[in-house]
Amino acid sequence: MAKILVIDDNIDICQLLERFLTKKGYDVETTISGKNGLEMVKNTYYDLIFCDFKLRDMEGRDVLAKVRIISPGTQVAIITGYADVKIAVEVIKKGAFDYITKPLIPDEIISLIERALAVKKESKVQSVTFEKADPKAKKSSDKSEANSDFLKGSGKESKKLHKEVKLVAPTNLSVVIYGESGAGKENIARLIHDQSERAGKPFVAVDCGALTKELAGSELWGHEKGAFTGAHSEKPGQFELADGGTIFLDEIANLSYEVQVGLLRLVQERKLRRIGGTKDKSIDVRILVASNEDLRKAVQENKFREDLYFRFNEFSITVPPLRERKDDIEAFAQHFLELSNKELNKSVEGFDEEVTQVFMEYVWPGNLREMRNVIRRATLLTDGDKMTVSALPPEVVYARKFNFTESTSDGSSSNGHHKASKAPANLKDAAAEAEAEVLRKVLEEVKYNRTKAAKQLGIDRKTLFNKMKQYDL
């Protein structure tokens, strides 16, 4: 029986989830405190945690970070009161399995639980397979063809991307993969591995953004029994698990300077020593790294070691954001719809014209990851043969309606509405501006009736009030 913990300062939500999930056969515990929840995690193993993003005593992102240290095998899903793209991108980047928005939908909750448990089961099966793998195992010509989560795309940018993958995959070069969060950097790393001579050997992905300075050494190099307090048994590190295959270090720039020093030694000598160990172990691993920031700039700012950068930068690939892959948006959307139909046991055939138009005009700040989440939720809410805009999150629909067209040279937009000529400094600022504009327009439509505005936006009054305060509305 899977064990689930719910951390939410709304007692009603705790009780609702406890009753609902208990009836579904899960062992459920609840708490209204983030700190108390962390104490519970120290004493009990949970397969999955539902944690509210806004708790009274701490934020969900902080709970997530500590759970990753205390119980790395536990999946965490963040509950948020508003379908906020910024929150979704941030928490998933920091290691959350997924996020779910209020009001909570029973089928969506069950779907998330089943996916989280399936991922845990799959990871265990993979580790066993790696241990028993035949060193002479025949590699597939393109293992990604069998990966139902992956679609190459056939547009101009996609063809250029996969031409580079095909070029570097058969070599043993280290590769730096650049791209925004959610753009599919890990998929590209897996594709490189699957098209290399190492296919059939381990592929190990490590989220460096989730590794603290204290945790990183044990996670990467492993440790011996008794190496430190709590080291009750020996543990192989991720590099050992990847021996013979490929290791993918995601968000490599987040590693501390001390860890970078140890990593440089490993890269240079191809040897590692577990924490508390006395002997070096030779390893044969191809290293692929990813970053959503320019490592050259990080070197100039003394955030990343120059010698380590040159070791990794034998070849570089940039994964274009979804907004630059317009030729593929309809194909990606259809692909995610098919995956969602299979996952949710639905039979939605396609999208109506307005939905397709929304998808083409929306900027997708969360990239492919955001698109998949949007389509999965919309599929769940669709009853007919085709998906309509009523099933889409408000921020996706309204973003293309209000003042988000390209500006002309005089600072006004092409649809005649005034728009500031200065572009947002980054995607986070752009998303904030978009959200503020959506809130402002809806509030004006309902003459600042908060109850009507909250209902139209699909959020509660408390969340609306906080957003109005945040954007000075």
Automatic annotation (TrEMBL):
UniProt xrefs under InterPro entries: AAA+_ATPase (IPR003593), AAA_lid_NorR (IPR058031), CheY-like_superfamily (IPR011006), Homeodomain-like_sf (IPR009057), HTH_Fis (IPR002197), P-loop_NTPase (IPR027417), Sig_transdc_resp-reg_receiver (IPR001789), Sigma_54_int (IPR002078)
Residue stretches making up the Response regulatory domain: 3-117
Sites of 4-aspartylphosphate modification: 52
Keyword Nucleotide-binding set for record: yes
Entry keyword set: ATP-binding, Nucleotide-binding, Phosphoprotein, Transcription, Transcription regulation
Pfam families: AAA_lid_14 (PF25601), HTH_8 (PF02954), Response_reg (PF00072), Sigma54_activat (PF00158)
Name recorded for this polypeptide: Sigma-54-dependent Fis family transcriptional regulator
